[in-house]
Amino acid sequence: MLLKDIAMQLGVAEGTLRSWKKRDNWDGKSATLQISATQRQRRAATNRKAAEGIEANDKLSDHEKDFCVAFIHAPNASQAAVMTGNYSTYGSARVAAYNMMRKPAVIKEIKRLKVIKRATMLADGDDVVEMHMRIAFADISAFVEFGQEEVDVMGPFGPIEISDADGEKVKLTKVVNTVRFKEHSAVDGTLISQIKQGRDGASVKLKDSQKSLEFLERYFELNPMDKHKKAFDEKKLAIAERQVKIQEDKLHGLTADVDGIKANMRELMDIISTPVPDRSLGDRRLDDE
User: Fold this and answer.
1) Do 194 and 205 form a contact (C-beta atoms < 8 A)?
2) How many Å apart are CA 123 and CA 121, to the nearest integer?
3) Residue ranges of E strands in the chain
4) Among the listed residues 16, 18, 24, 21, the one whose alpha carbon sits nearest the alpha carbon of residue 64
5) In terms of Cα–Cα distance, which of 39, 23, 27 is closest to 71?
6) Are strands 173-181 and 161-163 parallel, antiparallel or unpaired?
7) Which helix (DSSP H) or strand (DSSP E) does residue 121 occupy?
8) How far is CA 197 from CA 205, 206, 285, in A?
9) How far is CA 190 from CA 36, 135, 187, in A?
10) What is the pLDDT of residue 137?
């Protein structure tokens, strides 16, 4: 559908819809990957209800309407101005946000929209349990790709070359460990507690899965018939099976080491227990000489 047709169905200005498209990256994958289904439904409900009244407000310009809608999803006024996509720099967005917050009509509309947001975005117990389950069973491989790869050994003037058995020049290589972050649009940012950029590279830290696991264990003891319990038990069983597999692998390796030691001991005992033959008198005389 064309943007003007969508805007007509929603009852919003085409400019407002265009700013939503840019802010939420409708052409990319972030709208479907970064936001959970529940969040998308609630945000859509908020935007629909907001659109029902904001376009009827003839005291606001299109930029002011965009700002009001963005403000109910933003942590502060400056960020709301940035989210509208109407400003080229963060500085100009801050100035615009300051001017917006001085207008009584804008403040009144924001308060009205926040009432709508509270009515459509109240979290219930299922949302809390679902969030803790996502944190408890988050997999680091969903955020980074890691492994090993073969790379050229670099010298002061580029890759180092050596001669092979046939006298051909070949590049000297080595195997290194690699870690690559996935694009932000392909991960669930709500599960990340910290990202740091340091001298030795960047690092990502997930939220404390152990605390969420403890919460879920306490919760399901009080609510054994909860609809999430089956998924929780399956995840917990998978973790336990992995731990058992690791212990079995370690035990197998230890058993192999013990068997090797026993074989060496038996061989040594055979050598020690072998009787030394009595040498003849001639052999002793030869030794003396």
Assistant:
1) yes
2) 6
3) 144-152, 154-155, 158-159, 161-163, 169-171, 173-181, 192-198, 201-206
4) 16
5) 23
6) unpaired
7) none
8) 12, 15, 81
9) 10, 9, 9
10) 86
What pLDDT score does 123 carry?
57
- How many Å apart are CA 52 and CA 64, to the nearest integer? 16
Q: Are 229 and 132 in contact (CB under 8 A)?
A: no
pTM here is 0.41
**Rounded CA separation 261/106 (Å):** 81
Cβ partners under 8 Å of residue 19, min gap 6: 66, 70, 84, 85, 86
- What does the pLDDT read at residue 113? 81
For 153-162, b/e burial (b = at least 16 CB within 10 A) is eeeeeeeeee
Cα separation of 280 and 257, whole Å? 44
**How is residue 10 written in tokens?**
């929603």
Which phi-psi region, left, alpha or beta, contains residue 266 (left: φ > 0; alpha: ψ -120 to 50)?
Answer: alpha
Tell me the two tokens of residue 211.
């605390």
Dihedral sign for Cα atoms in the order 67, 72, 77, 82: negative
In the chain (289 residues long), the average pLDDT of successive 10-residue segments reads 75 73 62 47 60 68 84 82 86 89 88 74 68 87 87 85 80 87 82 84 87 86 74 81 80 67 65 56 51
Contact status, residue 171 vs residue 160, Cβ threshold 8 Å: yes
**pLDDT of the residue at 90:** 84
Phi, psi of 2 (to 5 degrees): -75, 155
